[in-house]
Design brief:
InterPro entries: DUF1194, Ice-binding_C. The chain is an alpha/beta fold. Helix content is about 45%, strand content about 20%. The chain has nine helices and ten strands. Strands 2, 3, 4, 6, 7, 8, 9 and 10 form an eight-stranded mixed sheet that branches.
Length: about 280
């Protein structure tokens, strides 16, 4: 005989409801904490800030070209091709061992308006003073915690499938020193950075690209292997950077699309109610 209509049965059913709801709440993580924003990739732009690398005119040209790149349709198409249709991007200036300065904190880009805001900041930004030559190992070690939880640090407000570092360099370390560079690169990759790319600019771009190829770049994401490219500081730089940024963002979007999604809140509720149904059948069956 079924006992669902008996007072005791109703009491047991009420407890089972509470138990299932509690289980669902546990899966959901209630009480819920404020979560980081999900984006397809986090792109960290590391820009050479030394006078040895770029004079003031060339620095302005580089920032204007980056601004044009992020305003371009090709970059926006790549951004919007991922699972979330958004990226997080930040810019850090690097120079000597004491110069790693955040020029633009992490911000989310998923629309033309947001891309234009980032471009406007790029055009208006001033670089910090950094005498001497660049030190790549210091720059890499400073970059690692900026990605937040993906590299074992505190949250930076974003979570993504692909963490990308892109160096824009117009010089190499004094004497082309390699001391500590490979170790820092390996540490960055082991910590969770997916790929380290470089763009060499200026009159010595070819030699700079060769240095970064041999000592700095590494990793891969979205099936795209790290690379080092070069370009002169001329009228074609904007188009060149647009192509480079678009390719890197596209690789991050591809990685995001192929990633296994985490359990959703809806799935957690279904799981909880599934337990409820099992419990109820044992009572009334």
């Amino acid at each position: 005989m079924k006992t669902a209509t008996l007072p005791g049965g109703r009491l047991r059913l009420t407890r089972s409801v509470l138990g299932a709801l509690c289980m669902g709440a546990a899966v959901l993580g209630v009480p819920q904490q404020v979560t980081a924003e999900s984006v397809d990739s986090e792109l960290l732009l590391m820009v050479d800030s030394t006078q040895r690398g770029l004079n003031n005119r060339d620095f302005d040209a580089l920032m204007d070209s980056y601004a044009d790149a992020f305003s371009s349709a090709s970059v926006m198409n790549s951004i919007q091709s991922g699972s979330y249709g958004r990226i997080a991007v930040s810019l850090v200036f690097f120079g000597n061992a004491n110069t790693q300065v955040v020029g633009i904190p992490w911000m989310s880009i998923g629309s033309a308006a947001e891309a234009q805001t980032f471009a406007d900041i790029l055009r208006a930004i001033n670089r910090p003073a950094s005498p001497g030559s660049i030190q790549i190992d210091s720059a890499l070690l400073a970059a690692i915690p900026l990605f937040g939880t993906e590299t074992g640090a505190g949250s930076n407000g974003y979570e993504s499938t692909a963490q990308i570092v892109e160096f824009a360099a117009a010089s190499t370390p004094a004497g082309n020193s390699t001391a500590g560079v490979a170790a820092a690169r390996n540490q960055a990759l082991a910590s969770g950075v997916d790929v380290i790319n470089s763009i060499a600019v200026g009159n010595q771009a070819g030699n700079i690209a060769s240095y970064f190829t041999n000592n700095v770049i590494g990793g891969q994401t979205g099936g795209v292997v790290a690379s080092s490219s070069s370009s002169a500081l001329n009228g074609n730089l904007s188009t060149f950077l647009s192509s480079q940024v678009s390719g890197q963002v596209g690789a991050g979007a591809a990685a995001s699309l192929s990633a296994v999604p985490e359990p959703s809140p809806l799935l957690a509720l279904v799981f909880g109610f599934g337990l409820l149904c099992l419990r109820r059948q044992r009572i009334v069956g």
